Every structure is written in structure tokens, then in C-alpha cells.
Backbone:
């Protein structure tokens, strides 16, 4: 009898266990933080419950027939079972009842599909570009077809406002996903796909590329930062400024020269002259660094650029950036020899110091940050 | 190659008055005649040996795919694992998927279907025995070709689904994806040829009286599976050809810059890929539909509903492919339509589950290892089916897709469904094929460990998936709540590995015990129901002494049992009275041949040629050409071969009764004639 009893326990426990214990974690799909994700959640929770109930019913029936069947075999040794060949009424019942249950699921499903694929009327439009292996965000504020703001790794949005993401890809298929705000949408080269999302409250929301996109797919993180409308307006103003030129003779000025010599063939900093002969990167270019220090993460949002230190202050994560510059392919798998990803530039210690001194000037710093060196 | 009743005395008379003289075999090889040793296996055209070869090769690939799974689990046991790097991991997870789907589950299904379908319909072999052997060698060489990529510059790294344009040489510069395209083209030939063979067998070679609705459920599910293969394989073949041309000859079928839409690949792949899911699972459904009635001592409940729901699954399986593409951008109306069609495919599947439960209801259950696996399938597949319904709801799928929740779902379906079914089938039909039983004690260990192991491995994947762990990622960071459950999954994977080890130990030790203690399994060890049990164990090469005349579903059972007025079974005949004796006198079998393996050997050479140097391709083409002509010009039955008397130990035992041979110009027709002649 031990076997069948284990069956019963297992069959009841498994669904219960996974439903109960999956309500934590930064990317979990049961904690919507915006209306689009909330619509999905309101649909999926009852479906999970219904599936769980059906599962338990089937498990109990199965356990019953197995336990009684084994008991019968042990006790009434000479009694052969009645040879039942079927029962049409029963068959029709268990064809029609599941059908009706599924009809009940299908209606809200179709309604929700149509509901979340409506293009919002007054939404703010932001272009999202996936490329191996990071996300670029472009804001065309005046609608002239040229973005005024080009940033990377952090999608900055105003809280409480509908956003229409126009999802593109510059190389292979990626998929943009911030589970707290919306479901996933594939970035397909040659197509522009729409994803509506909205955050109820200011905050930071994690996600990542969900469609397998090659070598470093696991590190292609996505991140949304929702700001209050006032903060967002300020952010828009700041981001449209060109980068300041460092004072002549400073360490940062030397860093700017290094940047022009070693980095500018791929990376753009607005206000620094375009360099002739851009590198032939497969996806076109590398993240725009004009306001690098305003972002809390770098390198495809894999590493923190700002961290909370032991005294609770938000400080510049210099070590991480230094390690990165020393040998990027050692930090993240990339294929620079195939023009995909950042190569090891074999920078010397002094050069790295100068570059970091320059990069530090690319503010503004995030709210509440302690300025480096202070 | 047909199975021909030998004329009793004189050479066949021709209308002209002359006779057909015995002819020498054409070709460079002398006709193989061995009945034992490795040569007898590589030249065999016996559907049972081909089935065993399929099974053995699939289990070999199962070990390889299992090692790949363990490597994946070792890499993911902790956050930021360092067992594999990203490039290696991407190859390993790609090959794990390809291996398990194309080189393990499909051929395991083929093993059962090859072995059992001719027996269950009362035939002496499949319709085209030499083509059957060709199918197997094609599959084996295709699988070895795919795995050789590990040593020739890197395995495929684009995922088994190989989404364009990530498979373009710009993004996947190693030869891996070439091996993928060409290897799957080769195994695709194997599947297609094998499928046509079995479809013809079921349509044309059924024993007299066996109408379609008297076929065992396993044969029905096999029949539906083979029809799915016949129609699904051409689709993936087209896709793989386009990919191969893109990569090797600069075509632009999937090149976005040249105006292609990469969704073309997805549509082609999933139009094949979703029926493929049912190709994987339906044979296992068939297997447990045989096991459950035998060990419940009741007929299958609702046989016509069982069959029709299988057919319905086969049909509906063609209308759900875009549920793999809910996030791809196929448009809200398509999404809604495919969402709804996907939900309703749950209906026939549910009918099957409930019919299995109803079959057991009121039965006397013998909880043998085979039965344990069958019950395990019902339970585990139900979990997989229900999680499937949760992502048929496409808005929810936008959250769940490409997370470990999906990985959990299809492992409950393919491991908890197909593989548990196959294990059950192995325990059930092992005495049929090899003449000894697998140990029930070790079998019980195997079952409970694999059940616990799979729930430890795949159960927590539901949890981490809903917590947002994406699949196909070689690493994950701390702080997302993934660590604990990933550790559990890895432990579970090793429990599964242990259970599989016990299974292999069981094979070896049971065989040794049977030999040393001269255990004979005897006839009809399970008091079974269908025709394959009416012949001795292990099955003699010629299957049936005389083709049975079928009056009932469960013909063998009905020859043993009647029913009393309460509907309970009553013995009407002893097993020995209804069993055939295994006496092959007068039965002439198709002769072994070298040509199937020669033909198949040409294909991987062509594959290497396309990848490395067209010179190999020319050589491969020549070998293939030679094989085709050798096969075509060789008489299907060796004119010099003798008639066997008793071949329980093998094929073609010498016989004094050498008779001239009937040339089979049209093989299936000749076979049908033979069957009708037996009536």
C-alpha cells in the first residue's frame, strides 16, 4: 500500500507547492506593477487555479482506481473483474464538460488578447532596439524621425503614463520583457512591433531578453526605471544636453583623447566630434555613452555602475568599471573578432585611470548619488 | 523481398511453358547468409531486429543526451556557474534538445512501432523489409553525423528550434548549424521512409478479419503517428534545405537585409514542430493503452473513443503551430485563433486520460513495473497537459514563454509522457523480444527513482519559471530567487541518472540470471490480449506459423476467455491450445542484404562533402547510387537460400528443402496475395 499512498501525496502536493512558492523574486510574473501586466495577471491566476483543481480531481480519481484495484487483486483472488467495454454517455460527458470549461477560459482569453493589443491613443512612443547583446532606447520627442535622446540599458519612463514601445532589432531576434510591467514582445529584424506598458509607481523593474539570441543571451538584461513626471521632465532636459568638454590639461581631458583614439569608432558621445571610419560592427554601433553616469548599470545592465556602500551611500562602482575596461570579453562572453561585442583594447593602467576620469564627467548622477571623490 | 509461400514442388510454370530458373544474386557482394554475429545484424531486414537496433541506438543516444543534461544541470547548480562557458553551454543545450527529440524519443517510438505493428496486425514483416533496414541505418548514420560535429569544429549552437537569422553564418560561424541542417535532413529521410513503410503495412498487411477497428490501440496510435510523420517531415525538410542553401550556397531565404522575413522559418519549423510533439507522444499513449488493460484484466474502456481521440489529436495537431509564436508578432487575430485551437486540443487528450482511468476502474490491478510506468505516465502527463492549458491562454503565455515554466511543461509531457511510456513498454515487451523478464525488483527501484527524480528535476522548473528564469541561458545571477530550486533540480537530474543506471544493470543482470538459471519466460507471461503474444517468446523470425484469422479486438484474449452471464471472463481454452508453435516450415522470409547499409552510408558522406569539400559529396553520391542500384537489381529473396525449419535461435537455418523462388516484381502486392492465399 505504500506506493499508492505516496502517489496521492505527490499528486496533491506538486501543484500546490509550485503555486505557493512562486510569489517572490524580482522577475516573478505574479507581481504586476502596472495595468498591462495586471490584466494578464487577472487572467492567469484563475486559469492556474482551475488547472490545479482539475489536476487534483484527476489525481484523486487515479489514486482511487489504483488503490482499490490493487486491493481487489490482493483480496478477491478468484473474482475476475466485470468486462466493461465502454459507456457512451460517460464518454460524451467527459468530452463535453472539458469543452465547456475551455469555452469558459477561451472567452476572457480572447477579450484580453484584443484588449492588450490595442494601440494606446495618447501613449508616449519610445523606440527599443535589440542587438547582440544589449538594448538601446531612442526617444524621438518632436516626432521628426530623428531621436533627440539615445540611451542604453535603462528604459526611463514616466510613471502613470501609457508607453507605446516600438520594438526593433538590428541583428537577430530578441525579446523585450519586463514582467512587472507587461508580457514579452519579440524584436524581429525588418519589423516594428508594438508593446504597450505602463508603471503605476516610480521604481526600478528588472527583466531580460527572452528569445535566445546567441552567445551572450543570458546577459542581455533589460531594465525599466519609472520616474515621477517632474523627475522625468528633468531627465528629458538633461539627456538632451551634449557632454561637457573637460578642462584642458586635466586627467579627464587626457581621457577624452583616449576615448577619441580607442573608443569612438564604436561608441558615440554627443558633443564629441564624429570619428571618421566607424568600425564595421554587425549591429551598427555600441551603447551611446553621452550620459553614462546617469545610469545605474552598464554593460548590458549586467554590472552596477552605482552601488550602495557600507555607510548606505549610493557611490560610483569604480572597481567594476575598471575591471571591465581592462578586459571586457573576460567579463561577459562576446565575439569581438566577429565584430560582435567589445574587444580587449589592451589599455594601460594610466590610460584606464584617464578614461574613467573622463567617463565620470558624463553626468548627471542619479538622484541621491554621492559624487565620486567627495 | 516479400514473404512468399514457397511452391511445394516444381519451379513456377510460365504461360510460355518454360520455368523460372534460380538466378544468381547481382552485385559485388555475395549474399549474406549469417544468422548470428554482427554481420547478421547489419544485413538483417527482419522488422524485429530493425526494431531492436532502433531501440539499442536510441538508448545509446539517450546516454549521450543524458550526459548533456547533467552538464547543463551542473553548470546551473549555482548562480554564475563555471562548469561550461557560454559557447559550450549553447552547444550542449542545443544538442541535448536535438538528441532527445530526434535521436532518442522518435527512434524509441520507431523501435516499438517496427517491432510490434507487424505482429499486432498479424503480418510476417513490414511491407518493404529492405527499406526498413535502410531507414534504420539512415537514422543511425544521421545521428552519428550530428554528433561528429563535436569533433569537427563545434556542435550546433542555435537551439533545436534554430531561429533565423541567428543561424546565419554571420551569427553562427562554426559548422555546427550545417551539421544540424544536414544531419536532420538525413534522419528525416529515415523517418519518412520508415513512416511510408509502416503506413503501407497497416493498410495492406492486416490479417484476414482484422478490420481497422479491430486493430490494437497501439497499432492505431502508431498508424496516426506515421501519417503525421509522412506529412510533417516534408515541411521541416523544406526548411532545412533553405537553411542549408542560405549557409552553404549564399541563398537569402532568411536574410533580412535581402528582404526576407525571419518569421518564415518559424512558421515552417512549427508547422513541422507541433505535429512532431504528437509524433513523440502518441506511440507512448499506444503503449500504455496495451499495458493498462492487461494488468487491469479488463478491456480498454471506450475503444472507439480512444482511437478517434487519437485521430482527432493527429488532425488538430496541425492547427496549433502558432502557439509557439504568440510573442513573435503574428497579429492579435491569429493569436486569438491559435489560442482557442490550442485549448481545444486538450479535449481529446483529456478523453484519453479519463478512458485510462476508467479502464482501471473496477479492475484487478497487478502493479508490475510496466503497469507502474503506465500509471506514472497518466499522472505525469496530466500535469504536463494542464500546464499546457495555462499557456494556451496567450496573454499568460506572453509572461511564461521562454521561461523555465515552459521547460517544465514539455519535460512533463516528453519525459513524464513519452519516456515513462517507453520504459513501461520495455518492461512489458522485453520477454517478447528477448525471451527473459527484466527483474521486477530492480524495475521497481528504477520506476520510483525515475519518478522522484523527474519531479525533483522538472517540478521546481515550474517555480523558477514563474519567478522569471529564462530558458537557454548559461548562467543566472544571485538575488532572483533561483538558487535553491536550481540546486534541487540538479539533485533530481542525478537521481534520474541513477535510475537509468539501474535500468541498464537490470538488463545485464536479468539476462545473466536467465542464462545461468535457465529461466524460461514461457508463453504469454502476462496473460495478454493481442496477437503478438500468440507466438512464442522470443518471437520467431517468421512471426506466425500461419496467419491468424481475426474475429475480435483483443483476438488472443478472446481465444482464451469467454464471458459468463455477469460479464466476467471465463477460461475457455488453455494458453497452449491457442499459442502457435513457432514452426517455420514452409515459410520463406526475405533474405538479408548488404545494400541498405551501403545506401545509407552514402548520405553522411554527402553531408561532409557539402560542409568541407565537394569531393566527399561526389564519393557519397556514388556510394548512394551504387546502393540504390544494388538494392534495385538484387532479388528480394535469395534464390540460393534454403527454407528454415526451426529458427528460434536465428534466421535461415539450413534446410534440405530448397525450392525455386518466386520473383516479387511488385512487393506489396505479392504480400497481399500471400495474405489472401492464407485465408
Residues:
Amino acid at each position: 500500500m505504500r506506493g499508492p499512498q505516496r502517489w496521492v501525496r505527490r499528486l496533491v502536493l506538486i501543484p500546490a507547492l509550485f503555486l505557493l512558492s512562486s510569489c517572490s523574486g524580482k522577475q516573478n510574473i505574479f507581481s504586476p506593477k502596472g495595468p498591462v501586466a495586471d490584466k494578464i495577471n487577472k487572467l492567469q491566476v484563475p486559469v492556474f487555479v482551475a488547472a490545479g483543481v482539475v489536476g487534483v480531481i484527476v489525481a484523486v480519481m487515479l489514486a482511487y482506481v489504483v488503490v482499490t484495484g490493487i486491493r481487489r487483486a490482493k483480496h478477491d483472488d478468484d473474482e475476475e473483474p466485470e468486462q466493461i467495454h465502454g459507456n457512451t454517455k460517460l464518454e460524451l460527458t467527459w468530452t463535453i464538460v472539458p469543452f465547456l470549461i475551455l469555452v469558459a477560459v477561451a472567452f476572457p482569453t480572447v477579450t484580453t488578447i484584443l484588449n492588450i493589443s490595442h494601440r494606446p491613443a495618447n501613449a508616449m512612443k519610445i523606440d527599443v532596439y535589440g542587438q547582440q547583446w544589449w538594448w538601446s532606447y531612442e526617444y524621438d520627442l518632436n516626432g521628426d524621425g530623428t531621436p533627440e535622446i539615445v540611451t542604453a540599458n535603462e528604459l526611463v519612463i514616466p510613471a502613470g503614463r501609457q508607453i507605446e514601445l516600438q520594438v526593433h532589432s538590428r541583428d537577430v531576434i530578441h525579446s523585450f520583457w519586463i514582467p512587472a510591467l507587461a508580457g514579452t514582445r519579440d524584436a524581429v529584424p525588418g519589423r516594428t512591433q508594438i508593446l504597450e506598458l505602463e508603471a503605476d509607481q516610480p521604481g526600478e523593474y528588472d527583466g531580460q531578453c527572452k528569445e535566445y539570441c546567441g552567445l551572450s543571451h543570458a546577459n542581455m538584461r533589460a531594465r525599466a526605471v519609472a520616474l515621477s513626471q517632474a523627475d522625468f521632465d528633468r531627465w528629458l532636459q538633461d539627456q538632451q544636453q551634449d557632454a561637457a568638454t573637460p578642462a584642458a590639461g586635466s586627467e579627464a581631458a587626457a581621457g577624452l583623447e583616449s576615448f577619441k583614439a580607442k573608443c569612438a569608432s564604436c561608441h558615440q558621445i554627443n558633443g564629441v566630434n564624429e570619428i571618421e571610419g566607424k568600425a564595421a560592427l554587425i549591429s551598427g554601433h555600441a551603447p551611446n555613452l553621452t550620459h553614462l553616469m546617469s545610469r545605474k548599470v552598464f554593460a548590458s545592465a549586467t554590472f552596477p555602475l552605482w552601488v550602495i556602500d557600507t555607510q548606505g551611500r549610493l557611490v560610483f562602482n569604480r572597481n567594476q568599471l575598471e575591471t571591465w575596461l581592462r578586459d571586457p570579453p573576460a567579463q561577459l562572453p562576446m565575439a569581438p573578432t566577429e565584430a560582435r561585442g567589445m574587444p580587449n583594447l589592451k589599455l594601460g593602467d594610466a590610460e584606464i585611470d584617464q578614461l574613467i576620469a573622463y567617463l565620470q564627467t558624463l553626468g548627471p548622477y542619479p538622484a541621491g548619488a554621492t559624487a565620486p571623490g567627495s | 523481398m516479400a514473404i512468399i509461400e514457397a511452391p511445394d514442388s516444381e519451379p513456377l510454370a510460365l504461360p510460355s511453358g518454360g520455368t523460372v530458373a534460380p538466378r544468381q544474386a547481382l552485385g559485388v557482394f555475395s549474399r549474406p547468409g549469417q544468422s548470428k554475429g554482427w554481420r547478421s545484424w547489419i544485413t538483417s531486414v527482419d522488422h524485429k531486429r530493425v526494431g531492436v537496433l532502433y531501440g539499442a541506438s536510441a538508448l545509446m543516444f539517450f546516454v549521450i543526451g543524458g550526459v548533456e543534461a547533467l552538464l547543463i544541470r551542473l553548470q546551473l547548480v549555482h548562480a554564475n556557474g563555471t562548469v561550461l562557458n557560454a559557447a559550450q553551454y549553447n552547444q550542449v543545450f542545443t544538442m541535448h534538445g536535438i538528441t532527445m527529440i530526434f535521436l532518442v524519443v522518435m527512434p524509441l517510438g520507431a523501435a516499438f512501432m517496427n517491432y510490434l505493428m507487424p505482429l499486432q496486425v498479424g503480418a510476417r514483416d513490414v511491407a518493404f523489409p529492405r527499406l526498413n533496414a535502410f531507414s534504420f541505418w539512415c537514422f543511425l548514420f544521421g545521428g552519428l553525423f550530428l554528433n561528429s560535429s563535436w569533433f569537427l569544429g563545434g556542435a550546433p549552437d542555435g537551439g533545436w528550434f534554430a531561429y533565423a537569422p541567428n543561424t546565419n553564418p554571420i551569427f553562427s560561424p562554426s559548422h555546427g548549424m550545417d551539421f544540424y541542417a544536414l544531419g536532420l535532413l538525413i534522419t528525416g529521410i529515415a523517418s519518412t521512409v520508415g513512416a511510408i513503410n509502416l503506413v503501407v503495412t497497416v493498410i495492406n498487411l492486416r490479417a484476414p478479419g482484422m478490420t481497422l477497428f479491430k486493430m490494437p490501440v497501439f497499432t492505431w496510435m502508431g498508424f496516426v503517428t506515421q501519417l503525421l510523420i509522412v506529412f510533417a517531415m516534408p515541411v521541416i525538410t523544406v526548411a532545412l534545405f533553405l537553411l542549408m542553401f542560405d549557409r552553404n550556397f549564399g541563398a537569402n531565404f532568411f536574410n533580412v537585409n535581402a528582404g526576407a522575413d525571419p518569421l518564415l522559418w518559424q512558421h515552417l519549423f512549427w508547422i513541422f514542430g507541433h505535429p512532431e510533439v504528437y509524433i513523440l507522444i502518441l506511440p507512448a499513449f499506444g503503449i500504455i493503452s496495451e499495458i493498462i488493460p492487461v494488468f487491469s484484466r479488463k478491456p480498454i474502456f471506450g475503444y472507439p473513443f480512444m482511437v478517434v481521440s487519437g485521430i482527432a489529436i493527429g488532425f488538430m495537431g496541425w492547427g496549433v503551430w502558432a502557439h509557439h509564436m504568440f510573442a513573435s508578432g503574428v497579429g492579435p487575430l491569429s493569436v486569438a485563433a491559435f489560442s482557442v485551437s490550442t485549448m481545444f486540443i486538450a479535449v481529446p487528450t483529456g478523453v484519453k486520460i479519463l478512458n485510462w482511468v476508467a479502464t482501471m476502474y473496477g479492475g484487478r490491478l497487478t502493479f508490475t513495473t510496466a503497469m507502474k510506468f503506465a500509471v506514472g505516465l497518466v499522472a505525469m502527463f496530466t500535469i504536463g497537459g494542464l500546464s499546457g492549458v495555462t499557456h494556451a491562454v496567450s496573454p499568460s503565455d506572453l509572461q511564461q514563454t521562454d521561461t523555465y515554466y515552459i521547460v517544465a511543461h514539455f519535460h512533463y509531457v516528453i519525459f513524464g509522457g513519452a519516456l515513462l511510456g517507453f520504459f513501461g513498454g520495455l518492461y512489458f515487451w522485453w520477454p517478447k523480444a528477448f525471451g527473459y523478464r527484466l527483474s521486477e525488483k530492480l524495475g521497481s527501484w528504477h520506476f520510483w527513482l525515475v519518478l522522484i527524480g523527474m519531479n525533483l528535476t522538472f517540478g521546481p522548473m515550474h517555480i523558477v519559471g514563474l519567478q522569471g528564469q529564462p530558458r537557454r541561458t548559461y548562467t543566472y545571477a544571485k538575488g532572483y530567487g533561483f538558487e535553491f530550486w536550481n540546486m534541487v533540480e540538479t539533485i533530481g537530474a542525478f537521481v534520474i541518472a541513477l535510475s537509468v543506471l539501474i535500468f541498464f544493470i537490470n538488463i545485464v543482470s536479468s539476462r545473466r540470471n536467465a542464462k545461468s538459471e535457465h529461466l524460461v519466460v514461457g508463453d504469454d507471461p502476462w496473460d495478454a490480449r493481442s496477437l503478438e503474444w500468440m507466438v512464442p517468446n522470443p518471437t520467431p523470425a517468421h512471426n506466425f506459423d500461419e496467419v491468424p484469422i481475426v474475429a475480435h479486438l483483443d483476438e488472443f484474449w478472446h481465444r482464451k476467455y469467454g464471458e459468463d452471464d455477469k460479464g466476467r471472463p471465463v477460461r475457455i481454452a488453455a494458453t497452449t491450445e491457442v499459442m502457435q508453435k513457432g514452426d517455420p516450415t514452409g515459410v520463406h522470409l526475405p533474405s538479408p542484404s548488404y545494400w541498405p547499409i551501403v545506401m545509407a552510408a552514402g548520405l553522411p558522406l554527402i553531408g561532409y562533402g557539402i560542409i568541407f569539400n565537394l569531393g566527399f559529396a561526389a564519393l557519397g553520391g556514388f556510394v548512394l547510387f551504387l546502393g540504390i542500384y544494388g538494392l534495385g537489381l538484387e532479388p528480394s529473396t535469395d534464390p540460393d537460400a534454403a527454407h528454415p525449419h526451426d529458427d528460434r535461435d536465428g534466421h535461415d537455418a539450413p534446410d534440405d528443402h530448397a525450392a525455386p523462388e518466386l520473383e516479387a516484381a511488385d512487393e506489396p502486392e505479392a504480400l497481399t496475395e500471400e495474405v489472401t492465399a492464407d485465408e
Summary: Residues 295 and 366 of chain B are 5 Å apart (CA to CA). The beta strands of chain B are 4-5, 561-563, 569-571, 587-588. Chain B touches chain A through 106 residues (CB under 8 Å).
